[in-house]
TrEMBL record:
Record-listed S-adenosyl-L-methionine binding positions: R49, G80, D101, M141
Metabolic or biological pathway, per its Swiss-Prot or TrEMBL entry: Cofactor biosynthesis; ubiquinone biosynthesis
Phylogenetic placement of the source organism: Bacteria, Pseudomonadati, Pseudomonadota, Alphaproteobacteria, Sphingomonadales
Keywords recorded for this protein, A-Z: Methyltransferase, S-adenosyl-L-methionine, Transferase, Ubiquinone biosynthesis
PANTHER family: METHYLTRANSFERASE, UBIQUINONE BIOSYNTHESIS O-METHYLTRANSFERASE, MITOCHONDRIAL
Coiled-coil ranges per UniProt: none
Record-given protein name: Ubiquinone biosynthesis O-methyltransferase
MF (Gene Ontology): 2-polyprenyl-6-hydroxyphenol methylase activity; 3-demethylubiquinol 3-O-methyltransferase activity
Cross-referenced CDD domains: AdoMet_MTases
GO biological process, one term: methylation
Keyword Methyltransferase: yes
Catalytic activity reported: a 3-demethylubiquinol + S-adenosyl-L-methionine = a ubiquinol + S-adenosyl-L-homocysteine + H(+); a 3-(all-trans-polyprenyl)benzene-1,2-diol + S-adenosyl-L-methionine = a 2-methoxy-6-(all-trans-polyprenyl)phenol + S-adenosyl-L-homocysteine + H(+)
Protein family (similarity comment): Belongs to the methyltransferase superfamily. UbiG/COQ3 family.
Length: 249
């Protein structure tokens, strides 16, 4: 969901956005909120992500796990928000949410859906590099594998993270199993739109930890998202398919 733009006479990417990714995801805006539509896999992933997010914020800020609004008084940023599948639950958890995506079609769909559900979310058509301010919680789910420069992307996230803040993100692992499930099967049989993923952009956890360190971030936790025929997608210690990371400065 990102594009590379170059300043005159420069070879350094000034934004994480890849134009082709914007077009690919922008096409999904019409049925993003349909649990049986083109984004059905995201609907299946979202409860798994939310379970991890809730556990990590409770641990990080020593919150009451019974609280219905644990993020009250905190600013949250959802990067690569799509049409708001994660931003809306973050708002319901009490956060003051800013959510960004470079695809204008997705932001339009997000605003319409949030308005229809009485939610106040600051949706913006933007890349992370264009944003100012700092946030207590930053989420970037299934985004880094779509960026032009993962190291620069993490650096930008780090700059937006407030002191004592928490960064949470997820991404496919760079394994043969992940390629089989995510690309060969899921994309091959239409569970995910074809062309969504490129295996050469998948990042293994060991490499990700090095990228985090390069951005001045410390890895706090790595959790797996596994798939099984009886359980479907679920949190697991197995990171071979997909994994979530919690990090802080």
């Amino acid at each position: 969901m990102v594009e590379t733009s170059m300043s005159e006479g420069s070879t350094r990417a000034t934004t994480s956005v890849v134009q082709e990714e914007i077009a690919q995801f922008g096409k999904l805006a019409g049925d993003w909120w349909d649990p049986n539509g083109a984004s059905a896999m995201l609907h299946k992933l979202n409860p798994v992500r939310l379970s991890y997010i809730r556990d990590q914020i409770d641990q990080h800020w020593s919150l009451d796990e019974r609280s219905r609004r644990p993020l009250e008084g905190k600013k949250a940023l959802d990067v690569g928000c799509g049409a708001g599948l994660l931003a809306e639950p973050l708002a319901r958890l009490g956060a003051e949410v800013t959510a960004i995506d470079p695809a204008a079609e997705l932001i339009a769909a997000a605003r319409e859906h949030a308005s229809g559900h009485g939610l106040s979310i600051d949706y913006r058509v933007s890349a992370i590099e264009e944003l100012e301010g700092q946030f207590d919680l930053i989420t970037a789910m299934e985004v880094i594998e779509h960026t032009a420069d993962p190291q620069a992307f993490l650096q930008s996230l780090s700059q937006r993270l407030a002191p004592g803040g928490l960064l949470l993100f997820s991404t496919p692992n760079a394994t043969a199993w992940s390629k089989l499930i995510t690309i060969t099967l899921a994309e091959g049989f239409g569970a995910i739109p074809k062309g969504t993923h490129h295996f050469d952009k998948f990042i293994a956890p060991e490499r990700m930890k090095l990228l985090l360190a390069g951005a001045g971030l410390k890895c706090l936790d790595v959790g797996g998202i596994a798939w099984g025929p009886t359980r479907g997608l679920h949190l697991s210690e197995d990171v071979s398919l997909n994994y979530l990371i919690a990090a802080a400065r």
